[in-house]
Predict the 3D structure of the following.
Amino acid sequence: MRVHLKTLGCRLNEAEIETWANDFSSSGHTLVDESASPDILVLNTCAVTQGAVRKSRQLVRKAHKKNPKAKLVVSGCYATLNEQETVSLEGVDLLVNNNQKDQLVKLTLENISEETMPSIATEPNENALFSRGRQRAFIKVQDGCRYRCSFCIVTVARGDEKSRHIKDIVLEINNIHQQGISEIVISGVHLGGYGSDINSDLFTLIQSILDQTTIPRVRMGSLEPWDLPAGFLQLFENPRLMPHMHLPVQSGSDSVLKRMSRRCKTDEFRTLVSQARRLIPNINITSDMIVGFPGETDGEWQQTLDFVKEMRLADLHIFTYSIRDGTKAATMSNQVQNDIKKQRSKTLHKLTQDIKYSTMQSFLGTTVDVLWEESQCANEYGSFTVFGYTPNYLRVKTTSDNSKALSNNIIPCTITSITDNVFNGLL
Ligand code: SF4
């Protein structure tokens, strides 16, 4: 689909549309000018002054007038503080609250179109998985992948595995820490393969980062659930390595995994998850699933549902399979019909939501450390809504009269309730 993004207001709004632009591109969509008849128009609004409110309203009206066929997605402070008014503006198809901004692309694709597989598996997950911002940065430590999963174009697009040297990575982390970043996400196309080309490994890299930097939070990006070096899980004994692992499994059926040419069977995944849960307190394990892979039978689909129920992963990124030219899967017979893929995707979304909610419930009443973000929106009484993440990457919201004191600091709060997949926390 063709997507156009537009923003009003502060630099944070600009940074957000940059992130969304990356996310849309990684999901296989094309960014276009407004004149190129976009299918989706995303507007990031502002409410810092009455003038900004007026301009935001006009922006929405004009956008719809110029592009009556485009689906309109509105986010930002004006939309968040004036929900009723925004949804009643002609042409608005979806409102994404500020508290769901990091999920905007996912919500847009879920609500406005069918989600499709990213063109390059694994790497784009970092964009979809973790929100950026002034408190968090991504450190790319390797590129390329030695495997050829049959749905993935990465080997063709990125070539052999190439790792950066530890001393360069450490230097970069120390620099950005000095600039005020509090959390890094270690990312790569096939992270588990880090070091294969330079006589090193992921264990040595993470141990060196923990030893040679003092950045408060180190987080692992998406990790294929194999090739993890010996002793890797023990690294999480260091409280600076955040207890969250995103392990893309892609299916709960061994026969589908075989057709996908994956290197991890369900039993191996089971073992890895149970070891991690045994060794790492409060570990949050999330994953990816591809729905409707070629030839996926009703029986194989049921195996996936049963596996998801059994594993109780706290969140799943669900992609509907789509043909990628140049991949082996594109040439496979028995492509699954669209209406079946759609139905399966819907079922899996519902199941995932139920599991996520019950996982979150288990944290009610606990006190957790939160790295708080910046807040732009004050309500009429001058209080700010501030968002942040727990160590295991669950989103928390609180209210504060002094959002600056929270911003980019790790301050504990007590979890009191859950609204729309976000914890409400009391400072
Ligand atoms: S492991 Fe498979 S899915 Fe992951 S990047 Fe390599 S080829 Fe792609």
About this structure: The chain has three domains: 2-112, 125-361, 367-426. Residues 119-125 have pLDDT under 50 and may be disordered.
